[in-house]
Amino acid sequence: MRFEFQGFELELTSRELERIARNSRITALQMSYSSKSSHIGSALSCIDVLTLLLCAKQKLEEIESGATLEVVCSKGHAAMAVYSVLREIGELNEETVLDYCKDGSQLYGHINHLAHSWIPLSTGSLGHGMPFSLGMAMTLKKERKAGHIFALVSDGELDEGTTWESALIANAFGVDNFSVLIDYNKIQSFGRVEDVTPLEPLREKWESFGWKVTELNGNSMEELIDALSGVSGLNAFVLNTKKGSGVSFMEDSLQWHYKSPSLQELELAFAELNSEIPKEAREK
Amino acid sequence: MRKDFIDHLFHRAKRDPRIVLLTGDLGYNVLEEFQEEMPDQFYNLGIAEQSLLSIAAGMAKKGLRPFVYSIGNFPTMRCLEQIRNDVVFMQLPVTVVALGAGFAYGTSGYSHYLIEDFSALSAFSIDIYSPEGPGSAKVALEKVLESNKPAYIRLGRGHERNSQIAIQSMKVDEIVIPPATDVVFLSFGPIADEVDSAIQQIGEKNISAIHITVGAISNLNLVLKAIAKSNVPIITVEEHVLRGGFGSLVLEMNQVSSLKLLRIGVGSFDNEVMGSQEFMRQHYGLSAKSIEQSALKFLSDITNSNG
Prior knowledge:
A: 284 residues; alpha/beta; B: 307 residues
């Protein structure tokens, strides 16, 4: 399976990407455990797509492609996902990542652009990342530069008016280098999406706004590669995901929007991911 | 004033392709030439101000110099969080241009008044400009383009005039208060016109007043230092609420313990009174006549208390 971006064939195998995603899950769990911070479920649900896109960005830089790939993680509460992937691919060091949420660290509970130059926008308040990314995409288009911009949004974030304003504007301006990635894990802050503000029929909503819609399993690396390889145009990718994906007892559960794992839970989670808790973490 | 500002922006944009003008579907009879001559630098993003601000921030992130153009509250109060998170925290060079300083949209009513914007935006690390007339609006634009910081320009509407008698602090490097000065008026924005008229009346009563327009808040320090040397009373005038307004900032930045200061502005807003700019200025004590009367009373109170 190959991954193509703007005409560049990138050496990314699903096996290697799955390994990075698994290790990123382990790092994220450890970050949540040691900082006792919330949102591990939200981080685990979108870690696969972040792995693919950040690895692709790294490859593009390595080969000096000149093509622009930007990912704005608009769901800023998934900070652990972004930071753990950057750690796994060597863009952040271990010490920095394990300082997550410690006083004075640039890595706090919602995404900070000062943590790494690949983070275009600090997020945390929903509904900002999509229009901001759209502004970047419109600039690339105006300047006729090769590239594609991705905005990763949560399903709850689709309640925000700016999402739909941006959807209208992107279509009105014929934006052809922009994708919104909807982390559709079906759970928002205080309940299930279908009970709070139902989004269905989601495909039809985006299609009626003039967007090309692709639905896929957002926790399957193979499906992600297949869907995002050679991406162009104006797309909404509906990523059917599981909140807490990869750790059975965290999956599809609202409590892991808030809870951090105990040592015992961390052990169980690590065992599922075929890993052992580092000695330092155990001794904490 | 808005037309002069946009004309100047037009000429600068011709020479600098990074300059883009974003509007929230406003600008009838003002923006057409820009739109026609430079379609690649003009975006009418529709009536979606919050997205407009975030899109502008994304454009600035990729190297453009966006100017967001709209009326009063729409690109300011409505977008406060977008300005806070996406522009100011990111320190991106987006310039918000709001029309209708004070009561300029008069009979349009409260929805269009720009009277609390300074209170809100001065909490942020953003350069704030409120030029009094077309001349200083151009100077403000030049200063914005020299800098690479977030900026807010608060313009009037159409009929504002350049002050003929004021020291325009934005245009000078040094301010000297003449020895015989009895009072210094500091004005913020197009209300300068009323202050000019009030000063002419006061002058006839043998009171020596000078008027300094503070078109750029970044110049306020320089202004206050000059006044501190002479220790003359100050009267601030703003077409804006007093709470957290321009006069409040003067109080906050003042270093003179014995300072005598009168703040003229909108004390508390009365939601049952609406009308033309002239009417609203009169209602809130911001007409030339009211400013003159308030100033005379203030100065006589000082004389009496010294007496």
